[in-house]
Amino acid sequence: MILEQIIQAVRECGEMILQADRTQAAAEIKDGQSNNLVTKYDRAVQEALRDKLLEIAPQAHFVGEEEDVHESIARGDAFVVDPIDGTTNFVKDYKCSAISVAMTHDGTQEIGVVYNPYLDEMFYAQRGKGAFCNGKPIHVSEKPLQQGLTLFGSASYYKELVDDSFRLLRLCFDRSMDIRRSGSAAIDLCTIAAGRAELYFELRLQPWDYAAGSLIVREAGGSVTRVEGGEIDLTKACSVLATGTGADPSFLRV
Ligand code: IPD
Ligand code: CA
Ligand code: CA
Ligand code: CA
């Protein structure tokens, strides 16, 4: 079955991350933005995933973060891939990064797989069939934010978003038990899906950051919208707000 084949491919590539010699990672700056990093391992994992995934579904488009040109996912089958989500963590050996693979059909996620090789946690979901971690069903938290954790992200190279991100973070801080910043949006989304935290937001993410994780949250019973409300859009960058069933995020929209 295709889900198992994708999981197997992702697991094998997780081993590449664990075996990587970081001293040879040769981090480069991307798009002229300092702090926006890419390494030869981001590219190597992406190439390995491309080969394996296109063997599973040769008809699919392949949309990987580290490609120069991104194909449209609006029609037909597509793989939306982040080879290393959490590149800065990888460069720093912070041991909190993931591989994120979504399979979409006509722009809608059908399958989402997020693998954290450091914890050997494989999160996955198929549309309409629930969400799982290492074979066990997962569910979002029912707790209100006052008894919960807020997760957030804010890439330091999106300078125009910093003030707003931290204004909203302050609102969350005042309403939560505590806040956390993992450095991997895909892991943040799976943390919400697994009921380990109650609210996650980030003001700008790219489709490969959230395509898989957002399906996993929804299949775990949670909600995923834009921070300002409305549907997330897999065809372009957008803000992402994910919550369990007990957290009321309406204070973020005033
Ligand atoms: C980044 C991570 C980070 C988030 C950034 C993303 P990358 O992805 O998910 O947590 O705050 O917005 O770009 O570049 O490490 O794949
Ligand atoms: Ca990146
Ligand atoms: Ca990413
Ligand atoms: Ca990445």
TrEMBL record:
GO terms for biological process: inositol metabolic process; phosphatidylinositol phosphate biosynthetic process; signal transduction. GO terms for molecular function: inositol monophosphate 1-phosphatase activity; metal ion binding. It holds the Pfam family Inositol_P. InterPro entries: IMPase (IPR033942), Inositol_monoP_metal-BS (IPR020583), Inositol_monophosphatase-like (IPR000760), Inositol_monophosphatase_CS (IPR020550). It comes from the Bacteria. Keywords: Hydrolase, Magnesium, Metal-binding. CDD domains: IMPase. Its EC number is 3.1.3.25. The keyword Magnesium applies. It catalyses: a myo-inositol phosphate + H2O = myo-inositol + phosphate. Gene3D superfamilies: 3.40.190.80, Fructose-1,6-Bisphosphatase, subunit A, domain 1 (3.30.540.10). Belongs to the inositol monophosphatase superfamily. PANTHER family: INOSITOL MONOPHOSPHATASE, INOSITOL-1-MONOPHOSPHATASE-RELATED. This is Inositol-1-monophosphatase. It comes from Butyricicoccus porcorum.
